[in-house]
């Protein structure tokens, strides 16, 4: 973490997907750090929840209520724009020209691997939505000639989860090829994507779009290859019940940490899929905010290639995570047949030099998991006297 709080006074920050799990606390953080914040979201995620008949464990307010509550708490007014980034290109271009943002943080994508793999409809929607959103944004920046710092939330899953036999680099792989005269030629190339789902594939395609628009239009882009985000509340979302962040625990959008926490609170066994030796990278939502503001404070120089940053706090196996939750709560552990097509175990070593060099000090499960479980238990007790209704994962 930086010694002093970053200051974004006088800067305009546009948060694409600002109603989502990551986008909402990010909008609040930039606003609390003095930025003029605008949120753009088509609320597609709320519609998907309704289609799947699932809901956040925390009772999230409508987007206008959230923004009103923040204005009441902080005195800061955030702009709100509601349209579909994938289909309304003119609205996007006009908004950018009007706002002239200094920083754009791009979260506006369908983000569930299981959703993208559940049907051809889910796969087609994920590609259509995510690739079009990213391309519309890049095309609009090129057309308007604006030069904001674009920060995109990508995923560490672009590297794939099969054993790579090497420490995964930050986006670029050093290779030695042979020149026409047989001499060794050293190059750095974008690490070849190895997505395990259509969702991850969209992030691999995003990478190609970023590389092209960076090369031809000089756009300044940071692509954060992020691990699985866990945790719920941040300093800002705690300030008022209308600001609470979402907590997904259904089988499509709920990630493994949330599932284990809910199972432990419910007194049912933690369900580990497969051998449990699958290693993944994790990051708490508060660490995510630290990393995004660090990235925002240090934009790429004009002419610099796309800056790819691995963003995670800790790597651990599902077995290690389940053991930790079990030790804290006494929950039993059940092993189920793995419904996903993924390697049963993997070595997963991922470089994280950029954020470390910027002073990032990660929080680990050991540091904060107990507090997180207590937090969710409290939220549940206040929000839902009949917790059984809320603990149903839906679908
Ligand atoms: N949550 C994680 O664990 C995690 C991990 C790594 C990367 N990421 C990335 O971070 C980003 C945000 O993830 P999240 O967990 O907050 O997801 P989320 O579903 O909670 O939020 C995404 C938001 O984007 C909006 N959106 C989607 N398509 C849109 C469109 N066409 N036009 C306008 N708005 C649109 C949705 O309505 C939603 O509010 C995603 O790109 C995701 O891939 C998330």
From TrEMBL:
Domain NAD-dependent epimerase/dehydratase intervals: 13-301
Lineage: Bacteria, Pseudomonadati, Pseudomonadota, Alphaproteobacteria, Rhodobacterales
Gene3D superfamilies given in the database record: NAD(P)-binding Rossmann-like Domain (3.40.50.720), UDP-galactose 4-epimerase, domain 1 (3.90.25.10)
Name of the protein this chain belongs to: NAD-dependent epimerase/dehydratase family protein
Highest taxon listed in the record's lineage: Bacteria
Family in the record: Belongs to the NAD(P)-dependent epimerase/dehydratase family.
Pathway: Bacterial outer membrane biogenesis; LPS O-antigen biosynthesis
Pfam families the record matches: Epimerase
